[in-house]
Inverse folding.
């Protein structure tokens, strides 16, 4: 296991008296796949919103790569390489898969979304765009409009646009939600592959995905950490089985 790259200390978020996240101490090690699981209402999404700075904590600190980022704006945190996928990486429905990735590559180069840039200038990004599409298994869909992609492929394109930003750490929010079995298997293999040189923190309801690819699992219940460790240990904690695993998809 690598050193800790993302850590929270007493992370707490209250909304008008309701404590959604309560005193959470989370530690994610570099180069690992870390899953955040728990029943609905456990606080998983709020934790993600706190880590990516869409909420400010009521109390506690967030440290990324040794730097306190608690008070940072979302864009500043994203520039550090901490990027959330599937919710903020929207695609442009009328653009092809290649064009969508090309736009994301412009952003990665520090350029705005300059739709008026000459076609020749954008063509310089095509090789990289096509390589990224090939990496995620979308080479055959490069010239298909995002709107025309099957659901699972569309979610994969969103991941490709996120990878174009060259993130050092990816936060994946329900990456297999709503997918057919074959799409789940493809995304699961893809996550394992892209984790080879990145750190991944993911919220995921599909326990077979969590069991197969996670190095560490943190179980939340009512905004607090209920258990933590590798799947084979967490799965045997009676409170976890009662609160989450025994009850199906919380």
């Amino acid at each position: 296991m690598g050193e800790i790259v993302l850590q929270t200390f007493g992370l707490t978020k209250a909304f008008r008296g309701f404590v959604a996240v309560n005193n959470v101490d989370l530690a994610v090690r570099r180069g690992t796949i870390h899953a955040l699981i728990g029943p609905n209402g456990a606080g998983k999404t709020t934790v993600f919103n706190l880590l990516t700075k869409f909420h400010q904590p009521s109390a506690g600190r967030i440290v990324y790569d040794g730097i306190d980022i608690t008070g940072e704006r979302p864009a500043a945190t994203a520039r550090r390489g901490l990027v959330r996928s599937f919710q903020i990486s929207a695609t442009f429905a009328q653009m092809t898969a290649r064009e969508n990735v090309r736009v994301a590559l412009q952003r990665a180069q520090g350029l705005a979304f300059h739709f008026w840039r000459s076609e020749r200038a954008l063509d310089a990004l095509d090789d990289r765009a096509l390589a990224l599409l090939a990496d995620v298994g979308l080479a055959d869909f490069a010239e298909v409009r995002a709107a025309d992609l099957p659901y699972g492929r569309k979610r994969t394109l969103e991941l490709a646009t996120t990878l174009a930003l060259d993130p050092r750490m990816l936060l994946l929010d329900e990456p297999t939600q709503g997918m057919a079995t074959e799409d789940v298997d493809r995304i699961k293999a893809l996550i394992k592959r892209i984790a080879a040189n990145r750190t991944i923190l993911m919220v995921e309801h599909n326990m077979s995905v969590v069991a197969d690819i996670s190095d560490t699992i943190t179980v939340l219940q009512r905004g607090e950490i209920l258990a933590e460790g590798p799947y084979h240990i967490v799965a045997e904690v009676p409170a976890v089985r009662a609160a989450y695993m025994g009850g199906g998809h919380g």
In short: The chain has a mean pLDDT of 88. DSSP finds ten helices and eleven strands in the chain. The radius of gyration is 19 Å. The chain has two domains: 1-81+169-250, 90-166.
